[in-house]
Amino acid sequence: MALATSKLLLTDLASGIDRVPSNYIRPKCDRPDLSRVVSSDSSSIPLVDLQGLHGPHRGEIVRHIGVACRDYGFFQIRNHGIEEGMVNGILGTAKEFFRLPESERLKNYSDDPNKSTRLSTSFNVKTEKVANWRDFLRLHCHPLEEFVHEWPTNPPCFRDVVGEYCLRVRMLVLELLEAISESLGLEKNCISNNLGRHGQHMAMNYYPPCPEPELTYGLPGHTDPNLITILLQDDVPGLQVLKDGTWVAVNPIPNTFIINIGDQMQVISNDRYKSVLHRAVVNCNRERISIPTFYCPSQDAVIGPAGKLIDDKHPAVYRQFTYDEFYSKFWDRGLRTECCLDLFKVSSAS
Ligand code: OGA
Ligand code: NI
What we know:
This protein has 350 residues and is of the alpha+beta class.
């Protein structure tokens, strides 16, 4: 067994070992079991073509999105309008960041989940018992001018490249939120009008190659606590989604993003749309980078099922709460497969 080490970041530990250190090893009942994972196709993860979203075929595309949100909770999008150059730019910048010398990266290190800009490792090193095979840089991105001055300045292009990407992704999210609102039979601004000032966070996830990937996770099964996630990944597989009790490996498709419904969308839709369990596994050979954008309500926004989606047949499944209340419970509990949402059900005692 490898010896415990004093390295703060996994990147600086992983390159020198050929066994997984004991604090990364999952109990036997909680390992990825990679032999039972199936590969994705369009019957497990829909691919939605956004070409023509603002033209005469809008109704059709909105219906497709609605079915994807209702029956899958996960879908991929193509013809989303974000240029390939911008996508390659941010992936390259993330890679450069994680290749900086340890001392340079550590300038951004913090284990405090309340910090709006921080580099850390695993998920929540303060509370978890088993660590995850991941380093990550987390950034707040909206409003950009409030946060950009906190971001790394190395590589030198970081703030420009990442800032431009964040603004562009936000435009795409707002378009998706309109389409999702319509797909629920709501006014197109209904969802976005109920998010307070809106929030947008980003993670740059770096999963180093792992000598024993069957013993550990990049990220264990979880649902995303936010409203909706737009995931950009490189060409290395690793994301898996739970569909009808089976883990499905999502094959990266060039020029697509993966969209998944988060817990707040499940609440607003009064359980019509589902926030689905997903996880990241690692592999022996290749490092992997993924860049999720977590779009969310602002901390003080009051979230609850949309009034139009509550009636005698569909009583409110959730009580109202502030996003702040939900979010702090999420970070305190750590990543667990039981969803944080249960704590906010109308029938829940807590
Ligand atoms: C996440 C997540 C998946 C991935 O960061 O919440 O689910 O493929 N990431 O990195
Ligand atoms: Ni996630």
